[in-house]
Every structure is written in C-alpha cells, then in structure tokens.
From TrEMBL:
Pfam families: Dabb
Subunit structure, interactors included: Homodimer.
Organism per entry: Lactuca saligna
SUPFAM superfamilies: Dimeric alpha+beta barrel
Top-level taxonomic group: Eukaryota
Database matches in InterPro entries: Dabb, Dimeric_a/b-barrel, HS1/DABB1-like
Protein name as annotated: Stress-response A/B barrel domain-containing protein
Domain named Stress-response A/B barrel: residues: 1-87, 101-195
Length: 205
C-alpha cells in the first residue's frame, strides 16, 4: 500500500501506466488513483496505490520486475513524496469490487511501546468490523517494509460497498470515537485516506 503526493499535469499518463502494472502475473489486485479524502495533521497525500500479492516473495519480485522499474523511472520526477506500508493478511485475499470504497488508516505508535501494546492496537482495529456491519472486508497488520513507512507501523483497510457507506461510517462518530479512545494513549499520529475503486472504463464506439 503506497500513498503519494503528486503535483503535475502529467498525472494522466502516470495513472494509466501504474494501473497497467496489474498485467504482471505476480499481482492479485492493483489499483491506482486519486484519493477521495485525506486526513492528517502532518501529511497530505493526493493518490494511492493499493496492490495485493500471494506472498512477500511475489511482492519482492514485483518490485524488481522490469515493467515496474520502467514505470517508476518514467514518473519519479513528478512525485513529491511517497509513503509505503506492507503487511501480511491472514484472511482470504478477495479483490475489492469496482465501485467499492476503501478507508485506509495508518498508525504511528509511540516509541516506547512493546509488543503487547502493538497487539492491543491491532485487536481494537479488528473489532471495528463487528460494530460497523457495512464493512465487507477488513485487512490489518504490522508493516514489514520499513524503508518508506515514515514511522507508520500499523495499517488497516476497511472495504465498504460504496461512497454512501463511508458517509454512514462518518455519521457514527460515537462508535468511531469509542474505538479511538481504547488506543489513544498509544498513538503518536494517524493518517486516514478514502479511495473509490474505479469502475471499468466503457469503450467509446
């Protein structure tokens, strides 16, 4: 999972090029596009790349794949900043349907925390699905790629049917706040972004 700050009129070719990486047979799912919303006190991202792989080994192979390297080199000059977080998901890896909405949360924990506090944070995040029935899929875990994480070591993706369900989630502020309070003392910083999986493009005849 990577988030980007991009400021350039060349974004359209980049979107096409990055989404074309879905043709690499190492990927189970890949989608790149502009964020719907971004909330952060310190970082403001504009785009997101969400991709899934069968294993860490497939991810490493994807990173060095010639097609991926070419797209990175073609677009690196228009990218102002990048944050990347990768984690293992033990559930069934079902690709989000086109039109689905995603809420992605990145957590930076305070530096003096032990494994117990990390496990507690993951447990609390995992409990959100039980309270918000519209969440179709919840993936969460601890980052294993540390080069571009900016200190954000825990992440989650909640997949919902559509944008209206994101708005319903926001309207339940009491439920959201109750979960945040359970781990608030352990968190230094939070980044939350929303993204809509694009619908298939209809060809003009």
């Amino acid at each position: 999972m990577s988030t980007f700050i991009i400021s350039s009129s060349a974004i359209t070719p980049m979107v096409s090029g990055v989404n074309g990486l879905a043709s690499i047979n190492l990927t189970l799912h890949l989608s790149f596009g502009q964020l719907l919303h971004s909330w952060s006190s310190s970082l403001t991202f504009t785009h997101i790349l969400h991709s899934r792989y069968r294993s860490q080994e497939d991810l490493w192979e994807y990173v060095v794949h010639p097609k991926h390297v070419r797209v990175v080199n073609e677009n690196k000059l228009i990218i102002d900043d990048v944050m990347a977080v990768d984690w293992m998901f033990n559930g069934a890896s079902v690709s989000p349907k086109p039109g689905s909405a995603m809420r992605v949360t990145f957590l930076k924990l305070k530096g003096n925390l032990g494994e117990h506090e990390k496990a507690r944070g993951l447990e609390v995040i995992g409990g959100i699905k039980d309270q918000f029935q519209a969440i179709e899929q919840l993936s969460l875990g601890e980052n294993f790629s540390h080069e571009r994480e900016k200190g954000f070591t825990i992440a989650s993706i909640a997949v919902l049917p559509g944008q209206a369900d994101l708005e319903a989630l926001d309207s339940n502020s009491e439920g959201v706040n109750s979960h945040e309070e359970k781990v608030g003392d352990s968190i230094e910083s939070v980044v939350i972004v929303d993204y809509l999986i694009p619908l298939p493009q209809v060809a003009n005849l």
